[in-house]
Design a protein that fits this description.
Layout lengths: L12 E6 L4 H13 L8 E5 L2 H15 L8 E3 L5 H10 E6 L4 H14 L3 E4 L4 H18 L2 E3 L7 H13 L3 E12 L7 E2 H12 L3 H9 L18 E3 L4 E5 L4 H14 L7 E8 L2 H17 L3 H9 L1 H4 L4 E2 L5 H6 L1 E11 L16 E10 L1 H19 L9 E3 L1 H5 L4 H7 L3 E4 L1
Parallel strand pairs: 1-2, 1-4, 2-3, 4-5, 5-6, 6-15, 7-11, 8-12
Antiparallel strand pairs: 7-13, 9-10, 10-11, 13-14, 14-16
Helix pairs in contact: 1-2, 1-14, 3-4, 4-5, 5-8
Length: 428
């Protein structure tokens, strides 16, 4: 495999974890510590604002992994100090950016990486941020040879790479994919850190920004088949997964649609339809989640409601979200699955501009499974994505740019790497 050259060849560290003192950042540090021995000669450092807190991160990571980490370098950097970000980027081949919400703190790091030819992965699930970064930085990233790849955690590697996996396993022309997400918790229950809650509040509060962004992003519509997937009601029962279902509000649909645009325009591949849904255990839980979603949506439209949601996350989420985040036992007991139901045509058309006249006549079902989504699977996905950028430059899209995971990694070994680290892809 080819090593990254040119803009990163003289840099000191292969990976730098920025925001290591954050809740998710701690887990990312631990994941890098676990896999470092697998990657011969890997050099890495952690970065953040406060030396004492960063030292505690290494101490905790050493305790959790059994690795000796006292000699891991520490870089002091802050989004409030552009010079510190520049100095960090001059030392890093790939920055793993864990500082969110990204709508507030993400662009500073992206800009520094682009200007210094440093590669960047993040774990944002915020469509407004992701799409704006593509609009504002794609050309300069290509000019400087920097790969800027967002949503490299549970949002949205399982979905985006899962669709790519499904397409690659389908014998014919795949027309549509519906993804069904399921989360399981252990006996200790489940929890989510406040950072995710905070991002969701502002993402929904400013969802109106997406229309103008997408007019700029999708100036030329991507042609798709006239055979659209079934139009689902807000609540519906799926026989394919034997569950009541609701629309999944994450970034997956936005990310997969951007990948389809890239596939059509750059790779000359046929685009497909995509939708994502929650699998619910019962109609009662479905109704409860709908009530919560309606309440949450209304409150984000008013500044007073936003302040209440920010101040009392545990109360308004029924105890699921908190400033403390989940316990180690809660994280260890969690898991996720994402089932993909694809439909398409047995006959494969070579001309992209030619559309099928016959109805889809073939189905495929695939599945991605893994450990707890937010703090185990997310670090696994993020770290493996960074390593692929580092080690497989010859298999990435030429030149760099602001890319989705599947646009960046479709031709790489990322799926094989994830399989080895307990995020499994399979055909059912």
């Amino acid at each position: 495999m080819a090593e990254v050259e040119d803009s990163t060849a003289k840099k000191v560290y292969d990976l730098v974890i920025f925001g290591a003192t954050g809740f998710t950042g701690q887990y990312v540090v631990e994941e890098v510590a676990r896999i470092a021995d697998e990657e011969a000669g890997l050099t890495w450092a952690i970065a953040g604002r406060t030396m004492s807190k960063l030292q505690k991160v290494l101490q905790e990571a050493s305790k959790q992994t059994g690795k000796e980490l006292e000699e891991i370098p520490i870089i002091i950097a802050s989004v409030e100090n552009a010079d510190s970000l520049t100095e960090m980027c001059k030392q890093a081949k790939v920055v793993l950016n864990c500082v969110g919400p990204y709508r507030f703190f993400g662009e500073q790091m992206v800009r520094a990486c682009v200007e210094n030819g440093t590669h960047h992965v993040d774990i944002s699930g915020e469509p407004q941020f992701l799409e704006r970064m593509q609009l504002d930085y794609h050309e300069n990233a290509k000019k400087n040879g920097a790969y800027i790849v967002g949503t490299c955690g549970f949002d949205s590697i399982p979905a985006d790479m899962g669709v790519t996996f499904t397409r690659d396993k389908f014998d014919g022309d795949l027309n549509s994919v519906e993804a069904y997400v399921d989360f399981k918790s252990g006996p200790e229950g489940a929890g989510v850190h406040y950072g995710t809650w905070h991002s969701a509040i502002y993402g929904l509060a400013h969802s109106g920004e997406l229309g103008a962004l997408r007019k700029r992003l999708y100036k030329t519509p991507v042609p798709k088949s006239k055979h659209r997937p079934p139009k689902r009601s807000v609540v519906f029962y799926s026989k394919d997964v034997d569950n009541w279902c609701l629309p999944f509000p994450g970034s997956d649909k936005s990310v997969v649609n951007r990948t389809q645009k890239f596939n059509y325009e750059v790779l000359k591949e046929r685009p497909l339809y995509f939708n994502a849904y929650f699998r619910m255990p019962s109609i009662f839980s479905t109704i409860l989640l709908m009530i919560f979603a309606i309440m949450f949506g209304i409150m984000t439209k008013f500044s007073f409601g936003v302040k209440l949601l920010e101040k009392y996350p545990r109360f308004f989420s029924g105890g699921k979200f908190s400033h403390e985040g989940p316990t180690r036992k809660q994280v260890a007991g969690g898991s996720f699955s994402m089932t993909f139901v694809g439909e398409g045509y047995s006959n494969k058309l070579e001309n992209l501009d030619e559309q099928h006249t016959e109805k889809p006549d073939k189905k495929i079902i695939t599945k991605v499974t893994g450990p707890e989504a937010g703090y185990i699977a997310t670090p696994i996905c993020m770290v493996q994505a960074a390593l692929v950028i580092l080690k497989e430059a010859d298999k990435l899209p030429e030149g760099g740019g602001v890319l989705t995971p599947a646009a960046a990694f479709a031709k790489t070994s990322l799926i094989e790497r994830l399989d080895k680290h307990n995020v499994k892809f399979q055909v059912l």
